[in-house]
## 1
Amino acid sequence: MKAGTALAAAVLAADVLGRAAGWGALGPGPRTRPRVALTFDDGPGPRTLELSAVLERHGAPATFFVTAPHTAAHPNLIQALADAGHELEAHGIWHRPALLLPPWMEWAQVRWHPRAGQPGLLFRPPYGGHSPFTRVLARLARRRIALWDTEGRDWLDLPATELARHTLEQVRSGSVILLHDGPEVTPELLDLILHGLHERGLTPVLLRDLPMQRIGVRAGLARLRASYGL
């Protein structure tokens, strides 16, 4: 019974401290600079070139957190993103919450990266999920966990105008905006967000140019309140 209680406590702590609070991970950049970072999870795929075209039209760079299977299936898209000046970072091998992966699979998940061998490698866990091992494995693999503070919610069945309005209400200087390379609505949503950022005097930059900052206690408490509606 005690072992089961300890395991449940470790799982709960991983979710609360790692995903919801994000303590120790990388989050938004300085709030004093009029910069934001656009990030896309799950690609590359059929929507990648359309997203890249929207970004090019606005002169905006972005960071793409790509998966191993999609990278292997679409090496031409990976090269196209790199050639366009976008940043490529890791979203893992299996798009599953970390708690559903045994430790040896999570080790492979954290270690994989499309730019293996280069410095400053980031890993964004699917769903932002953490197991009790995630941070330890990331440290061993010399990866930094990269989260976000603003969600485009493009997985919802809502009009792009409504999603853009909600996103732009949340965004601030230094924000890291989470979008996805896949949903049909995302290219239109991206266009609306970019127009809105321009009107607010906010400039999109790559994550490395933001730059992201470590999430401390105060920022983590604010994330906790937002995550659980407190």
## 2
Amino acid sequence: MSDKTIFLLGASGFIGGHTLKRLGEDLPSYRVIALVRDINANPEKKAKVAALHPNVELVDGDLNDATLIKSYASKYPITVNVASSDHPVSVKATLDGLEEHSGSGGGGPPIYIHISGMGVISDNARGERVENIKPLSDLDYHPTKVPRTNVHLDSDIPITEAGERTVNRVRTAIVYPGWVYGEGVGAQRTTFGVRIYRALFPAAGHAGTWGPGENQMTSVHVVDVASAITTLLKAMLEGRADEGKDGHCKSHFVLSEQPLYTMKDFTAAFGDALYKHGELKEGGSKPFPPSITDQMGDLGWCSLGGNQIGSADRLRKLGWEPVESRKISVFESMPLELEVAFQAAPVLETAPGERKQQTL
């Protein structure tokens, strides 16, 4: 692959900031062209993103700029999307551009790495406890094997199909982080989980869960998510990735070794912290009423009310390890994340109906 250029979507986001920084560290010979929303109208944001990589060019645009995205994806051999797990418009534009690049015959099939989330394997348990769940290995996962009503599939299935084609093929890979925690770098320093709960909890008057909150989650530090992406990309460039004969690179779960936790325990700790800070009138956690859960519909029940338990076996075969997650757990990180969040505004960038465009 002679052209050492990466087209990056989401560089100003929470995961995107760490990914851009890591690309500069792990692939220093590659330049990055990053699509960033309203970059020319926000000098401070522009400076923060630009400081993360020594050879980055910033392009003003957002995920709905389909023509722009297609144009850039068609020009370059690598596209990485860490902007959104659920944005079919940008996914289609990216795939259209990459297929055009592939059809041109220059340099072989292009690479597309896309971020999704573990909500795809949710059992939709409605917050109920389910005993003796066997972790699902990413070696056994395929988007067509889970309920079609689960989140992220509207984007994941077209990406998978593009990777399995034999004509104008694209080497596609999807990464599936668990509950992402930690402190961000660059323009966005607070994780989406913190932002969404800081908006929902005051609206309800208390911290809460979808159903009783006995459903269990796996977690991973944002630094380990970024290292997973660069580990995968390097393996694909070197021909070491777990790819089929048609070039489709399989799905990769990104999970730590930290113990499982229930959403009841997590939201209770979160609620106690917001109570101490004066954002709530009571601590602890209790189930949300329909007036709150209905705002997100099936998305909320699938993402926040189901068990999401997997095993990150493909990445481990490539030598990836959750190094940062071993240093600090999701509960130990919470006070640090909230201290950053308390200093930041606004609380949330999207309305409840738009949350499906974020990675959960």
